[in-house]
Amino acid sequence: MNFARDVVDAADPSALALVERARDGRRREWRFAEVAEGAARLAGWMRARGVGRGDVVMTLVGNRPEWVMAMVACFRLGAVVLPCPEQLRPTDLARSVGVVSPTLVLADPRNRATLEAAALGCPVAYVDESGLFDGPDVAEAVTLRPLDPCLLTFTSGTAGEPKAVLHGQRYLAGQAVQAEHWLAPARGDLVWCTAASGWSKSARNVFIAPWLRGAAALLHDARFDPAARLELVERERVAVLCMAPTEYRVIAARVPLRAAPALRGLVSAGEALNPEVLRIWQQATGLPIRDGYGQTETGQLTGMPAGGEIRPGSMGRALPGTRLWIEDGELVADPATVPTFFLGYLGADGGGEAPGGPWRTGDRVREDADGFLFFEGRTDDVIISAGYRIGPFEVESALVEHPAVAEAAVVAAPDAERGSVVRAVVVLRSGFTGTPELARELQEHTKAATAPYKYPRVVEWADELPKTASGKVRRAVLRDSG
């Protein structure tokens, strides 16, 4: 198997693969012939610089065709690609490099300052350099096995540092299940998954799942703007729109909704959508938002099927062939039935093969009499904000680096638009006073220390943190007091 050969090279060369809407307003259509050639020449360029099967290539590129071709070039060589979101800070990037030891970093030139500050100690190439996509060498696609490594993505990190999740080649082919039964584009459709490059959902739904169904992908390399989002859906005649729950919430709250002429499917994943948002979208567009569920380690496990019964608030049923059950309130999966299940973790702290036996998701889920599943919350303390999964440990670590902070605990606080936001309860060192000015200073400090979406939007002061007898912070008490 090889995704580059079996899907990209095998497609009709003249068929539409990508519609590019660049940050500067440019628009360009890319045919499969152009994508295949650009990826093959980039693969040749990388091979000449020592990249081969099993080597890790990190990308730090926005939602641009160059990112897609870099991914396909890695698939072509059998290299392992680690797409990173552009929001990462130098400390995030340095930590990732320390875990995965990339042979090469491919980056957007707009991220040059961040990469230079990270001082990664490995070769970095920028996608605007001459010869990357139009060089003389064309690499042939190697033959790969389902369990050969393919893709790396990082978890959010709940009890410690984020873990590097390693997927095999089967992860790519395995997307056919959710592509058919949940995303569900038709051949020739235009699909827009708005997730930024580097996130788990973007790796599978921006272009992999659409191409498996014979559809094209829209790439929009710009910040989220509610009005612009709807205008672009109409102008580009998007057929299937895949957005984060927060994006659906914000658009419903800030922009008058209307039906789009070509739009036939709305899907969402990452966290539950409240009934009022679902009602507003369906009333305005005539379309239900079909929810789905998955994890970094598992890929997608459930989905509300296209054309089937819709249960508001449900994340659907298990995808065909996937065996799920609930044990003591927690959703559990049989890895043998999950074609996109991961191979294991990388790194000294989380290294090793994927655990054998049932996979405990750590999510509390209930099931109704008809098998529809409803997400109730995490069994651990992960915060889901605007679709981002944020581990409290990382935010707490950033806060306690500030000279004013003695201790800090981070929990979720409810928010009408983002679902939840990060709430920090801070114990100050002697000589410091909790003021609005200090709260803003801690927020800016956290933004500088880690990815900006992780900063605490709510900062509160406490004389001490509630703890167990063994000294562990009782976050449940903090959540209940918020």
Number of domains: 2
Unreliably modeled segments: none
Main sheet strand line-up:
2-1-10-9-11-12-13-14-15
**Proportion of residues in β-strands:** 25-35%
Task: Give me the CATH fold name of the largest domain.
Answer: Rossmann fold
Major sheet size, sense and barrel closure: 9 strands, mixed
How would you characterize the overall build of this protein?
- There is one protein chain.
- This protein has 482 residues and is of the alpha/beta class.
- It is 29% helix and 27% strand.
- The strands form six sheets. Strands 2-1-10-9-11-12-13-14-15 form a nine-stranded mixed β-sheet.
- Helix 4 crosses helix 5.
- The chain is globular.
- The termini are far apart.
- The mean pLDDT is 92.
In short:
The protein has helices spanning 3-9, 32-48, 65-77, 90-100, 112-118, 170-183, 200-205, 208-212, 226-235, 245-254, 275-285, 392-400, 436-449, 475-481; strands at residues 16-21, 27-31, 56-60, 80-83, 104-107, 124-126, 149-154, 164-168, 190-193, 216-220, 240-243, 265-269, 289-295, 299-303, 317-318, 324-327, 330-333, 344-346, 352-353, 359-367, 373-378, 383-385, 388-390, 405-415, 419-428, 458-461. The chain is an alpha/beta fold.
